[in-house]
Amino acid sequence: MTSNGSSDFREIARGLGTVMRYGEGDILFREGDEPVYLYFVLGGRVEMTSHGKFIETVEAGRALGTVSMVDKNPRSATAKVVETAEIALIDQKKFRFMVEEIPGFCWFVMDVLVHRLRATNEAL
């Protein structure tokens, strides 16, 4: 279990996704980009901004790009690596598999979405 009480899906993401390493300052995606992957942070930290405003820092065990994976609309934020990161890239097909077949993952996704909504509201 993670500190917020949700399950830790890092090993599942590592096994299903394509694991990449990113350096400080690398951009994972920008506002307006078409969604291709869910980015599951295995290690490191990623900063989320929207319309030039800081939203939150995403750390190991959390995911980003979730909103666009659910609604398939362009990215609503920019994700920038602020500490060297190891990230599992999960494509749409594998994301759907995880939601439909892995117990508890649906709750993890809802937790990420609610957390992001609250962080965005706080930033406004």
Architecture blueprint of SSEs:
Blueprint: H1 10-16, E1 18-22, E2 27-29, E3 37-50, E4 53-59, E5 63-64, H2 66-71, E6 78-91, H3 92-101, H4 105-123
Antiparallel strand pairs: 1-6, 2-6, 3-4, 3-5, 3-6
Overview of the molecule:
This protein is of the alpha+beta class and about 120 residues long. It has one domain (about 10-115): Jelly Rolls (Sandwich). It is about 35% helix and about 35% strand. It has four helices and six strands. The chain has helices at about 10-15, 65-70, 90-100, 105-124; strands at about 20, 25-30, 35-50, 55-60, 65, 80-90. Strands 1, 2, 3, 4, 5 and 6 form a six-stranded antiparallel beta sheet that branches. Mean pLDDT is about 90; it is low at about 1-5.
Summarize the structure.
It contains 4 helices and 6 strands, in the order αβββββαβαα. The chain is of the alpha+beta class and 124 residues long.
- Helical/strand content category: alpha+beta
Annotated CATH architecture: Sandwich
- Strand count, sense and closure of the main sheet? 6 strands, antiparallel
Q: On the 0-100 scale, what is the average pLDDT?
A: 91
Low-pLDDT runs: 1-5
| Number of helices, where a helix is a run of at least 4 consecutive DSSP H or I residues | 4
